[in-house]
TrEMBL record:
Keywords of this entry: Disulfide bond, Signal
Top-level lineage group: Eukaryota
Every Lipid-binding serum glycoprotein N-terminal domain range: 30-251
Residues making up the signal peptide according to the UniProt record: 1-17
Species whose genome carries this gene: Clytia hemisphaerica
PANTHER family xrefs: BACTERICIDAL PERMEABILITY-INCREASING BPI PROTEIN-RELATED, BPI2 DOMAIN-CONTAINING PROTEIN
Protein family according to the UniProt entry: Belongs to the BPI/LBP/Plunc superfamily. BPI/LBP family.
Residue intervals of the Lipid-binding serum glycoprotein C-terminal domain: 266-475
Pfam family, one: LBP_BPI_CETP
GO cellular component: extracellular space
Protein name: Bactericidal permeability-increasing protein
UniProt cross-references to InterPro entries, sorted A to Z: Bactericidal_perm-incr_a/b_dom, BPI/LBP/Plunc, Lipid-bd_serum_glycop_C, Lipid-bd_serum_glycop_N
MF terms (GO), sorted A to Z: lipid binding
Amino acid sequence: MKLVLLLSICIAAALTADQIYAVPRGAQVRLTHRGMSYSASIGVKKLQQELTNKRLPTASGGSGGFSYSASNLLLRTVRVGGYNVQPVAGNGGLSLSMSGIYVSASARIQVKYQKGWVKLSDTRNVDIKTSGVGFTLRINIGAQSGKPQLNVASCSASIGDIDLDFSGNLGFLFNGIAKLFEGKIKDILRKVICDEGRKLVNNEANGFLRGFPVQQNIENYAIINYAFQSPISTSSYIDFLLRGEFLDPKNPVHSKVTPPTFDTVTSSAKMAYVWITDYTLNTAGDVFHKTGLLKKLVGPLTKEIPKDVKPFLNTKSFEKFIPELFKRFPNRPLEFEIQTNKAPSFSISPGNIGISIDVRVKVVVDKVDGSKLPVFYLDLTVDAKGSVFVKSVNKQLNVGGNIVDFTFGLSVGGSVIGEVNLPIDDPSVKMLVKGLIIENANPLLNKGFPIPKVDDLDFINPQVSFVKNAIRVDTDINYSG
């Protein structure tokens, strides 16, 4: 159960084939029945720990001349026989049932009998054993301030047989209160089991979920907003819906783009499935463009020069294609000022992710007198294919990528040296474009961005694939806390 809480941490928002979600969402995480069963096992262990060696309040009662007072009530052993977790179809809910619970307890009990002049009293230890104990929690999942919140809507508990073993003699005294005491113990057990179940969910789990990272700062140049929107559940899984949107940290305005529909899987082989849509990627491109993050200056003094640009940092390298440039500025250093004309855009289809990049590259000559002269610019339109991967960075799981192939179009403008012609089918021209665009983009794509998670929750053997309009990560989960 606790993992259900933990997984609420992780992401999501989307459209299944037969459900329409009316909330903005850029990502989605699905917890399957297998994932929920693993989660429930965490809750079972925690509940057993909380109940074992738990001291209970003093119990007393009486009838027909008999009275008793039981102190030092202690639950010594609690073992859960079986459990089942089941999502409740609708807008997010769970039913967690535990059955076959064995409980052993002990107490110090004083019994008194008074009728007329007859007065009897005795105090002794009693061992208590129960079987057939079970209970069911119904849990609602909602959202508050962008964070998941759980609430126990109801709890019902049943207690089967109780065996009382009183030590010593005067058995009739204790037989006289046995049924009364059994009833009291059942009431106490029902209450304590439900109280601990509620506490586990309403206090501990929600305290944990308050640490859910609604917004994550990405190296101070962007914010990714993972605000939890709402859950959607069926009889076999729960979908957690997140906004999944990049924002400008200085001007965090929500995108007007509508998140897409996308294909979701019906498989339940993995514990969890995570989808990151091209909406998330496109809001990233929009932020990077507007904040100028994609502006670059590449020249001889640049600290890290893309390897395919190095051969082109002197007018000599253009003598073949642009002889006038070399003639007027022989053997002079060149700089390339790169900026996007519009936001890069991403499109995802089964088996493929496409990236469209539109940039302007100013070619600047470093003149003999030390001044700099823009001699022309290149408008480049690049259509690229990419690959995607997940990697662990400082205990955080990041989704990153690479451009693996591309085609491009080219036009020249702003020339001060006459007509400029660059043959786009020449390998050296493609090499220059690769260095200016691809080798500048890939380091940023490699860094990727985080999938929201909390400490102690790990993704095991995550696998990445593409579906219509989304990246899908299939994974098992492990809680190491």
